[in-house]
Write a structure and sequence with these properties.
alpha+beta; Serine Threonine Protein Phosphatase 5, Tetratricopeptide repeat; 11 strands; OB fold (Dihydrolipoamide Acetyltransferase, E2P)
């Protein structure tokens, strides 16, 4: 391998030779952030890749920079013939970000990262008493954003659908570290049409295939002047000061998108939208680690856990 003129890359190479892969990986990530088109850096990134999946992604990046690179082509063949488990090298400090993810998300996060730096810099100039108040407010704001705002933050949070392997029946869904057994209530399809009174992400690591809580309402339940609605801990509550038995329907959907495209459509939903959602009703989802250790069961009680197969935003006149 050739060595570029970057002192950071030279330091990373020295760390690799000394066996310090964590330091080398961090340095290479910094180099990729500043110079994502450096072929030399991507070649050395192979030395600190944590998994075969990450190696393949890096090799594909190398081949986009040099489509005839013989070493990369040969390495891909070797991976297919002799897979390894390099993740063990990082068992005490698992990688937080892959080089490929960093390169793809660098442009998307630069603006939000800049805003955060400005805010944090301002916060540290305040007196200690005010600083604690600002820090507490920041923590609350981040928690609210993470658990209540319908966003994947440019793919940085939420489920990685590229990592999932789904059976034809959707009764088993697997990732590299977990798998889920899904029991459906029947073979039919359910349809929900109405006004969204609440939409928020589901952030449960054991059940990360569940992505959204969506409260779909009609008639009186869709009118905030008649009925107040609340969703707490994946349960819905309603009350009305004007009617004892509101007309219409109210359904809280716990969403499992059938694919990445459906997930992207769910991310577009906002409060007040009129939606049409169809899919198969789910009774239980059992979660297991890759070594078959049981993690827990999600049971549908009073709501609608749904394998969502289609979602559409409607106009008012389209509502049935």
């Amino acid at each position: 391998m050739t060595i570029s003129g970057s002192q950071r890359l030279k330091t990373a190479i020295t760390a690799i030779k000394n066996g310090d892969l964590i330091q080398a990986r961090n340095l290479i990530l910094e180099e990729i952030r500043e110079n994502p088109s450096s072929l030399d850096t991507w070649l050395w990134a192979l030395e600190v890749a944590a998994t075969d999946k990450e190696k393949r992604a890096i090799l594909k990046k190398i081949l986009t920079l040099d489509s005839t690179h013989k070493g990369a082509l040969q390495y891909l063949t070797q991976l297919d013939e002799h897979p390894s488990d390099k993740q063990k090298l990082f068992s005490h400090q698992p990688p937080e970000k892959s080089p490929v993810d960093l390169a793809e998300n660098n442009d998307k996060t630069s603006r939000s990262g800049g805003a955060l730096k400005i805010f944090s810099g301002w916060a540290f100039t305040l007196p200690p008493s005010c600083g604690f108040i600002v820090l507490f407010a920041l923590i609350i704001s981040v928690a609210f954003f993470y658990f209540r705002i319908n966003t994947s933050l440019f793919g940085l949070i939420g489920n990685d659908f590229d990592d999932l392997v789904i059976s034809n029946s959707y009764e088993k869904i697997s990732s590299t570290d977990m798998y889920w057994d899904v029991q459906f209530e029947g073979i039919g399809e359910s349809k929900f049409i109405g006004t969204v009174r609440h939409v928020s992400p589901i952030r449960i690591s054991e059940f990360r295939i569940l992505t959204h809580d969506i409260l779909v309402t009609t008639v009186d339940f869709a009118n905030p002047d008649i009925v107040d609605t609340t969703v707490v801990d994946h349960k819905f509550f309603w009350k009305s000061a004007t009617v004892s038995s509101p007309n219409g329907s109210i359904n809280l959907i716990h969403a499992i998108p059938a694919n990445k495209a459906i997930y992207q459509e769910l991310l577009k939903i906002q409060n007040g939208d009129i939606v049409k959602i169809t899919g198969r009703e789910i009774y239980t989802v059992k979660a297991y680690q890759a070594d078959e250790s049981f993690l827990g069961t999600w049971i549908d009680t009073g709501c609608n856990t749904l394998l969502i197969e289609s979602v559409s935003l409607l106009k008012a006149q389209d509502q049935e």
